[in-house]
Amino acid sequence: MTSSEYTASTGRFDTMTYCPAGRSGLKLPALSLGLWQNFGTARALATQHEIVRRAFDLGITHFDLANNYGPPPGSAEENFGRIYAQDLKPYRDEIIVSTKAGNGMHHGPYGDGGSRKYLLSSLNASLGRMGLDYVDIFYHHRPDADTPIEESMGALATAVHQGKALYVGVSNYTPEQTRAAAAALAEHKVPLVIHQPSYSMFNRHIETGLLPLLDNIGAGSIVFSPLAQGLLTDRYLEGRIPQGSRAANSSVFPDRQVSETYLARARGLQDIALGRGQTLAQLALTWVLRHPQTTSALIGSSSVAQLEENVAAVGAADLTTDELDAIEPYAVDGTLR
Ligand SMILES: NC(=O)c1ccc[n+]([C@@H]2O[C@H](COP(=O)([O-])OP(=O)(O)OC[C@H]3O[C@@H](n4cnc5c(N)ncnc54)[C@H](OP(=O)(O)O)[C@@H]3O)[C@@H](O)[C@H]2O)c1
């Protein structure tokens, strides 16, 4: 397919909901698409095009990347660059592209961590791979105890002042680190707009510390792995690892998670989902989006069918108090550790 063959759906903004990230003007879709695992060299580029096009047609305006996504590292940005050039370039002002630096990217002392040297050189490399002049959000991917937070945040502020990033965020920062990051950015008159933490029914660490803090400092959140990499879908409910699944193919998915404890909890949640006319994946998404501080849930999808199932969760009825109470015994923090 050439660029002239893709025209975005005219109804693309009709059913998705969009909320501001914290007290910023940046609106994000309730569901955003992450390119961590399904956009490297192992998946056909045609499938990647299909997923991104369908996402945009369904109102998903936000695509989340990082320098090291693929696998191998860098390949997701390269593939997104191809998809952007062919399909999305006419819509640049309608999409939000994020990238990150902070995880290990290349050998040597300047390819990991939070130094100014690494963060700013990595952003330039990311822009080159994606064929973009700027990203909408640039994140520090994880805290780095070896670099002063003022240096890492100074680098993010420079990216904004250079016009290479419109907004900045942090990911995997503790509440204390997040508060310090916001204060360091404020010195440069750059707001901390968003935090990207993990969050799901099986991983609830943000509920007590981080979400109240974000409220306090006026930042939003975009929660990653809300489906617990597929464990909060019907993919593993028979107790085995299906061929072609992330559990079968990827080192980021420890198979010890498909345990009897996991199965009992996931099946309990599945029954509640079916009782409200949802799939388990849809219930898991409705559940993470119940907080006002959760601006967006950042999903992965290896097929258009998964994407469509997930997007159908948007606009579902709010969870009732009885439903939330019924979920509680199964939504156990630490199920995945
Ligand atoms: N900041 C960070 O440190 C960090 C870390 C991790 C992720 N992230 C971001 O978060 C994004 C999402 O993470 P994630 O991919 O772990 O999210 P996720 O939505 O929890 O998991 C996605 C996986 O779940 C399965 N799945 C999704 N929908 C399904 C459905 N309806 N039915 C059955 N299976 C379904 C697919 O697995 P199969 O491939 O097996 O089909 C898919 O690849 C990433 O792409 C990245 O942008 C950020």
Architecture overview:
- The chain is an alpha/beta fold.
- It has one domain: NADP-dependent oxidoreductase domain (TIM Barrel, Alpha-Beta Barrel), CATH 3.20.20.
- Helix content is 35%, strand content 14%.
- The protein is built from 11 helices and 10 strands.
- The protein has helices at 45-57, 75-88, 116-130, 149-161, 175-186, 210-217, 246-249, 260-275, 280-288, 304-311, 321-327; strands at 18-20, 27-29, 31-34, 62-64, 96-101, 135-140, 165-171, 192-196, 220-224, 294-299.
- It has an 8-stranded parallel beta barrel, surrounded by 5 helices. A two-stranded antiparallel sheet has the order 1-2.
- Strand 7 (165-171), helix 5 (175-186) and strand 8 (192-196) form a beta-alpha-beta unit.
- Helix 1 crosses helix 2 (75-88), helix 3 packs parallel to helix 4 (149-161) and helix 5 (175-186) runs parallel beside helix 6 (210-217).
- It is globular, with a radius of gyration of 19 Å.
- The mean pLDDT is 96.
- Residues 34-38, 64, 141, 171-172, 196, 224-230, 233, 235, 245-246, 281, 298-302, 306, 309-310 line the site of NADP nicotinamide-adenine-dinucleotide phosphate.
Proportion of residues in β-strands: 5-15%
Q: What top-tier CATH class fits best?
A: Alpha Beta
Low-pLDDT residue intervals, each spanning 5 or more residues:
none
By DSSP, the count of extended strands is 10
Distance between the termini: 43 Å
What ligands are attached or bound here? Answer: NADP nicotinamide-adenine-dinucleotide phosphate
Main traits of this protein?
337 residues; alpha/beta; TIM Barrel; two-stranded antiparallel ribbon; 10 strands; globular; binds NADP nicotinamide-adenine-dinucleotide phosphate
